[in-house]
């Protein structure tokens, strides 16, 4: 659906090595998956513009992110320009345009959490994960992001690990939670 | 006989291990062969006691907290008696709760939030039944007479807003609930949505009948996935039982609701930006007029209210305008759900009639700071609210009293900082927050916030000549004045509140230049 204009990378890959061909196959499979997700969302939600955010949410929920390649198809469905769709995607902090790491840690940076040591907790997280805010750990497992208020201001500081919320988080509790992720795989949202 | 034990399922309890506690209780009861049923209530709002476990006893529901899963075997060993160190006695008699005046939050923590039967058993939907027997204008008149004001910050009288929509021409009208609660220190909306979702649904349904709207939207922030799931479950139940849909309770008008999920933009808490977002656009503020009451969602007349305003409507329609009016002081009628948070020993939700002082909240309820150090500054009303020094803590919680201090009561959120707080750093944070979250439509907010960060950085660095440092402070005040007067909405227009209040009340944190400027301002 959104391959109406072939990506330059796909065109170039016809002359590349076997591994690149495998990568292209994987990309094609991912693209087909996104096509399927969008087709289902379009059929269910219709094409009134107020369904744009629900479509973007649905795509991110299923695919993990909003692939930039999907913008033309979304724009066409809603009869909007690509710039308008791009503008909406980039306006909202929640939408991501690249695949997330296996484990996303979001540390609350709002004032109530700051008053209970969120800055020190963030520093600890940066050291423990080996990456700064908006960064990823060297092996790509962890990503560290800011978030502004999880509504746990009376049990601060708070953070999320793959959308599961934890409050009253000390550096020691942070280490225990990360150790649990390492031991059991990704901690699922509660 | 089965003993009932309640373990909260509010996300504040889940965040400190409530699911693990519930599982441990069920497992321990099974191991001991005890006949126990674990129920999942909402939260009472005594958040420092989470996980607050309640056990059904002959005298009433007895509390234990804060309970960790590891405490569970010992609690069973002690027979859940008053002898156990975590025992709190009857929950209703805990002073923090017993001294509150709960109208909006009357059911929170008592009922199971996903049970319509529980809601009905505790007085739910009596307000809607009364409303269905009234003419729309009479419902609006009741809300107006109650004195209810919007809980979003501007404190506009709810009944007057509804009346504008009622009288607006056209048959297509909407009810929009602003559930984009994103202010640091506020969690009252989240508690309502997670602990008593039907009360919000009932309030919106009454609003729909009152103004002639057949459709409503609840715009909830993406940071609240539990609230979204709880609301969607409750809406489906209400629809199934005829409390939403084509004919309310089989005979009334049509009204239905849907939840719309936000996407992490603070500005969408501003009502016109929120409407843009529901329409599928970037959340950019609209110029007013026209008012949303006349040209709101999809250009149609729209009631847009905060969660707490709408969730308070059922009790007003149930018990009458006079009942609600009797609480409060001056022009601030009814109760204010105060949210006490940050560096405080006993943080939580406190619903009280307007008029209690900040000091009473901080010490009488909050028990002082969590760190045990002196409290230095208290920010009231979210990240755009002023920082109040101790000299202002005897102010009563009342919209007009706060306005006279050049402060805002806003949504009733209170964030406490102890004496280690660096107020210049917090002022910088307010500007940085505005720079990140500005929708970009107007220049004072978009550019002013970035320049604000830069100038505060220069003041904090303290490397300029004394004259240059004073000039930076003068410039900061000038910039704040421009943002205050020139911004299109409260985002840029209120960022100066935390910045200037920090500068005025805590000049020492801005170095010598702050002190000199403060002195010259005072002399002027």
UniProtKB/TrEMBL annotation, chain B:
Keyword tRNA-binding: no
UniProt entry tagged with the keyword Iron: yes
Transmembrane segments: none
Key words of the record: 4Fe-4S, Iron, Iron-sulfur, Metal-binding
Limits of the NADH-ubiquinone oxidoreductase 51kDa subunit iron-sulphur binding domain: 424-469
Any one Gene Ontology molecular-function term assigned to this protein's record: 4 iron, 4 sulfur cluster binding
UniProt cofactor(s): FMN; [4Fe-4S] cluster
Domain of life, source organism: Bacteria
Entry's family note: Belongs to the complex I 51 kDa subunit family.
Protein name: Formate dehydrogenase
Organism listed in the record: Pseudoduganella dura
């Amino acid at each position: 659906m959104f391959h109406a204009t072939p990506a330059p990378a796909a065109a170039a890959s016809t002359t590349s090595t076997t591994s690149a061909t495998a990568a292209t196959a994987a990309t094609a499979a991912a693209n087909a998956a996104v096509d399927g997700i969008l087709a289902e969302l379009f059929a269910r939600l219709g094409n009134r513009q107020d369904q744009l955010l629900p479509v973007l949410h649905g795509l991110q929920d299923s695919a993990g992110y909003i692939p930039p390649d999907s913008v033309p198809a979304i724009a066409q469905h809603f009869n909007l320009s690509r710039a308008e769709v791009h503008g909406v995607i980039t306006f909202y902090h929640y939408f991501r345009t690249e695949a997330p790491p296996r484990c996303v840690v979001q540390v609350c940076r709002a004032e109530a959490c700051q008053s209970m040591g969120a800055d020190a907790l963030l520093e600890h997280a940066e050291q423990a994960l080996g990456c700064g805010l908006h960064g990823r750990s060297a092996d790509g497992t962890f990503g560290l992001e800011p978030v502004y208020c999880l509504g746990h201001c009376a049990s601060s500081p708070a953070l999320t690990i793959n959308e599961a919320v934890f409050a009253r988080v000390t550096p020691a509790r942070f280490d225990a939670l990360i150790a649990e992720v390492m031991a059991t795989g990704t901690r699922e949202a509660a | 006989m089965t003993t009932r034990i309640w373990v909260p399922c509010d996300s504040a309890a889940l965040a400190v291990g409530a699911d693990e506690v519930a599982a441990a209780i069920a497992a321990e009861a099974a191991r001991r062969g005890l006949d126990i049923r674990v129920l999942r209530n909402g939260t009472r709002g005594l958040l420092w006691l989470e996980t607050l476990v309640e056990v059904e006893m002959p005298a009433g529901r007895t509390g234990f907290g804060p309970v960790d899963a590891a405490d569970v075997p010992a609690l069973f060993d002690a027979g859940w008696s008053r002898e156990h160190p975590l025992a709190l006695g009857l929950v209703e008699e805990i002073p923090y709760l017993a001294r509150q005046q709960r109208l909006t939050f009357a059911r929170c923590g008592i009922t199971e939030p996903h049970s319509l039967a529980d809601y009905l058993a505790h007085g739910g939907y009596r307000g809607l039944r009364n409303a269905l027997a009234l003419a729309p204008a009479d419902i609006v008149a009741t809300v107006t007479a109650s004195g209810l004001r919007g809980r979003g910050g501007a404190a506009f009288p709810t009944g007057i807003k509804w009346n504008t929509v009622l009288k607006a021409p056209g048959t297509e009208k909407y009810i929009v609930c602003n559930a984009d609660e994103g202010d640091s220190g506020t969690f009252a909306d989240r508690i309502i949505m997670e602990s008593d979702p039907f009360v919000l649904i009932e309030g919106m349904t009454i609003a729909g009948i009152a103004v002639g709207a057949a459709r409503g939207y609840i715009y909830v922030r993406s940071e609240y996935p539990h609230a979204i799931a709880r609301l969607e479950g409750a809406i489906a139940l209400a629809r199934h039982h005829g409390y939403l849909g084509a004919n309310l309770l089989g005979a009334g008008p049509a009204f239905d609701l849907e939840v719309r999920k936000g996407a992490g933009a603070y500005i969408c808490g501003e009502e016109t930006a929120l409407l843009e977002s529901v329409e599928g656009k970037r959340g950019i503020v609209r110029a007013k007029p026209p008012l949303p009451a006349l040209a709101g969602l999809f250009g149609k007349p729209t009631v847009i209210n905060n969660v707490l305003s709408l969730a308070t409507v059922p009790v007003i329609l149930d018990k009458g305008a006079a009942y609600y009016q009797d609480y409060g002081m001056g022009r601030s009628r009814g109760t204010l759900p105060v949210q006490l948070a940050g560096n405080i020993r006993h943080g939580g939700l406190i619903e009280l009639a307007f008029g209690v002082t900040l000091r009473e909240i901080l010490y009488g309820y909050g028990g002082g700071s969590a760190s045990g150090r002196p409290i230095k500054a208290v920010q009231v009303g979210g990240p755009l609210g002023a920082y109040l020094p101790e000299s202002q803590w005897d102010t009563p919680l009342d919209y007009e009293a706060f306005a006279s201090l050049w402060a805002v009561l806003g949504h009733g959120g209170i964030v406490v900082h102890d004496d280690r707080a660096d107020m210049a750093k917090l002022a910088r944070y307010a500007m940085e927050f505005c720079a990140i979250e500005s929708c970009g439509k107007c220049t004072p907010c978009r550019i002013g916030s970035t320049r604000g960060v830069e100038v505060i950085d220069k003041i904090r660095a303290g490397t300029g000549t004394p004259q240059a440092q004073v000039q930076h402070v003068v410039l900061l005040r000038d910039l704040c004045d421009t943002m205050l007067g020139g911004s299109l909405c409260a985002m840029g227009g209120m960022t100066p509140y935390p910045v200037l209040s920090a500068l005025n009340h805590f000049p020492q944190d801005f170095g010598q230049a702050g002190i000199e400027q403060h002195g010259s301002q005072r002399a002027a």
